[in-house]
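thought: fold this chain, then report.
action: predict
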Amino acid sequence: MYIKCALVLCAAVAAHGFNLGPTDVEFHLYTRTNPTVSQPVTPSLNSFLTTNFLPSRRTFLTIHSNGEGVAGNFNAFVVGGLLTSADVNVIAVDWSRASLLYTLGLANASQAGAMIAEIINVLILNFGYSANMVTIVGVGLGGHLAGITARAISGDVAHIVAIDPSFHGWTHHPDILKADDAGAVEVLHATAGIQGYDYPLGTIDFYPNGGTYQNGCGADVSCGQIYAYAFYAESLAAELNTNTNNQFVGTACESYEQAIANSCSGARDVTFGGTAVKTSESGIYTFNTNAVQPFAQG
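observation:
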């Protein structure tokens, strides 16, 4: 009887979420001065005045998915990759208390995204910072939070990179990631229709290896999502090398169906990832990868 009641209570919390407090969404600043040890920041001017944050730099927000935290695998790949590639501010979001379970994260996503936006709005209000200097990189649930966050920021965010944004519960969700959430919305689909969202969501959508299963992972979708942000990290490292063989060069597709079948044959004129904002590129693309690093085939 007690077990049944506990399960009902958990289901109710997962369906409706809870009122998030300041400790449920935390922020950690990394720069080239402190690339491995973060400086905690809060949505307040005084918090930033004692850190290595520089208003002259671009700022990248990273948002993990459910079941992870700021020290998880996603940030281990992405934060270091960003700081190696460019002299930027990286603010890693930790919303692990609000997303321990997928259902809980889904229920709390809208509220968490609005709270994340506050950290950028403080910079805009106090430093005259421009939203156009902000890129948001999110994985899984964090891919949709990127859009929610961007909508709540006072200004137009330059770029969203949504890595394998989540599928379950988002088909009819009012806050699903949208192509107009930023100047450029770049989406990578790695487990399309299984764990990740299937149909195009951005201004430019990439379907590596057909977008559902990744070379080297077999049918392991968790592996496929890890490979997805490993691709992004590799794309950042590729910026330091002019050899195009190190880049994920996309092939244009005529349709989503063609992308899923990995049968596209259009122009090869767009690359996935990196730090550049893709303001003039749009459409659906595929690219093939190696099963082990280096993944890019040029």
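thought: worth noting. The first strand starts at residue 26 and ends at 30.
final: tokens above.
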